[in-house]
Amino acid sequence: MRYAIVPVTPFEQNCTLFWCEKTLQAAVIDPGGDLDRIVRAAEREKLQVVKILITHGHIDHAGGAAELAERLNVPIEGPQLEDRFWIDGMIKQSQMFGLQGVRPFEPNRWLEDGDKVSFGEVELEVLHCPGHTPGHVVFFQREGKLLQVGDVLFQGSVGRTDFPRGDHGALIRSIRQKLFPLGDDVTFISGHGPISTLGEERRYNPFCGDDQD
Questions:
Q1: What global pTM score does this model have?
Q2: Residue 62 maps to which CATH number?
């Protein structure tokens, strides 16, 4: 599997293209906006986008999902059902943050912990990691030891929990009980900022690392 990061929206959100090297079928993870930029990135690699994956319902991650799904005629999978209120409130989010052209959507498939999503010959494991939002999911490509964590974990930081239904304790449990056991050598892509590894964050992250025990 290969990937490309496409920063979108004024929040510089890391929309990510994952694709199967053999079939060139691809998934777009978290198309928050700037859809022409996302489509051009897929076209440069000659990819066939076959689905959209959503980690959580915040506007910078999901604001462009409805339009992109319509444009490409592809299904939307994710997040977990507890984030429905964020997606249903997409118009209100757009008024709060000044992002235009967004609208609510109904995913073709709500995802649960332990589910699998696939495109081409690639299979991703779904882990439900609440805390930043109650329905946040992450996507793990075990063979390549690659993880897309949305806004659960960042290099040197963790996701905010001061939004409605955020839960800091749940977030730290998600990181320590769901993510860190995947292995120190797993590379992760966050919703914002640089790539890191789970080992680096376990050792040095001041919010969730070993020295916080």
A1: 0.97
A2: 3.60.15.10
The amino acid occupying position 16 is T
Tokens of 113: 């912990």
State the CB neighbour count (10 A cutoff) for residue 194: 11
CA distance 115 to 99: 31
Please tell me the number of Cα atoms within 13 Å of 195 on its side-chain side. 14
Spatial neighbors of 36 by CB under 8 A, at least 6 apart, are none
| Residue 35, domain extent | 2-212
CB 62 within 8 A of CB 30: yes
Beta strands in the chain (DSSP E): 2-8, 13-19, 25-29, 48-53, 76-77, 116-119, 122-128, 137-141, 146-150, 153-154, 157-158, 187-190, 196-197
Strand-pair partners of 26:
19, 49
Output the six-digit token pair for 64: 């462009």
Q: Please tell me the predicted confidence (pLDDT) of residue 213.
A: 59
Nearest to 93 by CA among 64, 67, 52: 64
Residue 124 in tokens: 């991703």
> What values do phi and psi take at 103, rounded to 5?
-155, 160
Identify the CA nearest to 151 among candidates 3, 6, 45, 12: 12
Instruction: Provide the number of structural domains found in the chain.
Output: 1
* pLDDT means over runs of 10, the chain (213 residues): 97 98 98 97 98 98 97 98 97 85 94 98 98 98 98 98 97 98 98 98 95 65
Q: Are 14 and 153 in contact (CB under 8 A)?
A: no
